[in-house]
Sequence to fold (355 residues):
Amino acid sequence: MRYIRVIVILILLVLAVSFILEKNNVSPEEAITGISKALNQKKNELTQKTVPKNRLYKVDLDGKLFQWIGNSTAELIESYGEPIRKDTSAYGYVWWVYTDKHEQYIQFGVKDDTIQTVYATGSNLSTEPIQIGQSYDEINKRFEFKNTVTYSKDLSSYTFRLDNDEMKMRPLTKVGENVFVQCYFDTFTNKLSSIRVLTGDVLLQHRPYAVEYRGDLPEQPDLTAEQWDKVESGMEQQIFNITNVIRNQFDKSILKWNDHVSEVAFLHSEDMAEHNYFSHYSQNGDGLKERLAEKNVYYFSAGENIAAQYPDAPAAMEGWLNSKGHRKALLNNDYTEIGIGVYHLYYTQNFIQQP
Fold:
């Protein structure tokens, strides 16, 4: 078959050269040169549009990050190619995830083929007009953060009120009639750790701040068990990727995924949600040591992070980064593997050191 293809291609090439010679009255050498240039041009076009599936090299967000809100998925694919995966969210949009799993992480929330929200963290990101790693004071000069931010839609009006801790860790600013930016700061370094851009409707669904309003609030997620399974699975992968990107920023080793440890983490998240408690210790008194032993997980050392009622995985990650004890586990260089379990809005990270 290969030889037949080669013969057919040669015949077509000869016919093409003959047609060009007859049509344009040019020499054979000129005709072949023209065809060669056309083939090379097409090859370059295809190469430029191809993004390696497991690697996002230099991310260029075409200037201002918030300008992606309202853009189409066609524009997203043209710029970055297909995402490495698509994660279902609890809020009606689908996360298109782009990451090299070490240095850069971006996810675009898509609904009806339109970008509704963006989350970005990592190194070497072009996120004008602000940059990851920039100081709080520098960004505050740009946005002039305030503890009240307003939003109006139709006959409804909303006022988001931020307390002092929220102003330090995740201030909110309005950059358009229906576009908001959450700046997540590492309060231990006072530097920008990640950026989230979102529409007013998405912000109201997440409700990360106290809100006063006139009119109607959008309904909170009411998902089936099957839908929650998909959301939880996506958030587990997001936490895994973001964890390693954050660790890389602090020159810590990359963690491997451990299925058995993930099962332990999931069962603890599920138990906390179903029995309405929040603790590293189960209601029977068992801690991480006992839960790992029950699943025959062997290790040199282990640690655990838990979180609850954050609207999604990126928000939970920023919470852990800004808590002294959770941060210590997150950035512990002795750990080699990680297990992650999410059940509804309960999140558990289990870290272990393997020989």
Observations:
- Confidence is low (pLDDT under 50) at residues 1-24, 35-62.
